[in-house]
Design goal:
- This protein is α/β, with parallel strands linked by helices.
- It has one domain: HUPs (Rossmann fold, 3-Layer(aba) Sandwich).
- 43% of the residues lie in helices and 22% in strands.
- It is built from seven helices and five strands.
- Strands 3-2-1-4-5 form a five-stranded parallel sheet, with helices on both faces.
- Helix 1 links the parallel strand 1 and strand 2.
- Helix 1 packs across helix 3 and helix 4 packs parallel to helix 6.
- The radius of gyration is 15 Å and the shape is globular.
Length: 158
């Protein structure tokens, strides 16, 4: 019996998330037809945490998250058309959503935003929690040095 190879990728609408998804799709392409990628975006929204103008624009955060996921998957599919890439939008704390999704995966891939030199900020709180609690190995993909690492997630900025 052939084992399928499943890579779960945390997507958030940022360049770092897209970079992680592209990396996972490239690995899946090399693994062959039994490999697949599951792009997951977890979202939660608390209007108290956002300025009023952003809260108004995010009247439907699930729709914004779905749009971010759709764009990320479409972009990855243009580069890797033969790779099976599925997507899932889940309401909830992004780290907990990804940890749950990692239960059936062979690998969890995340992008690093790299906002500062401090470990917590470089890795990010979501990645840090996933590293500690994931059900499978976790790989944090840094942004290439030539690209901007000061990206904001579409979910929080759209």
């Amino acid at each position: 019996m052939t084992h399928s190879y499943v890579i779960v990728v945390g997507v958030d609408g940022s360049a770092a998330g897209q970079h992680a998804l592209d990396w996972a799709a490239a690995v899946a392409a090399k693994q062959g037809p039994t490999a697949s990628v599951q792009a997951v975006i977890g979202w939660e929204f608390d209007p108290a945490d956002r300025p009023e103008s952003v809260a108004i624009r995010l009247a439907d955060p699930a729709r914004v998250a779905q749009r971010a996921l759709t764009v990320a998957i479409a972009t990855a599919r243009t580069r890797y058309p033969d790779v099976a890439i599925a997507g899932e939008v889940v309401e909830g704390d992004p780290a907990r959503v990804l940890i749950h999704a990692s239960a059936g995966a062979d690998l969890l891939v995340l992008g690093s935003h790299g906002h500062s030199r401090m470990f917590h900020a470089v890795i990010g709180s979501v990645a840090e929690m996933c590293i500690r609690l994931s059900h499978c190995p976790v790989l944090v993909i840094p942004m290439p040095a030539t690209e901007s690492t000061n990206t904001k997630a579409l979910v929080s900025a759209a």
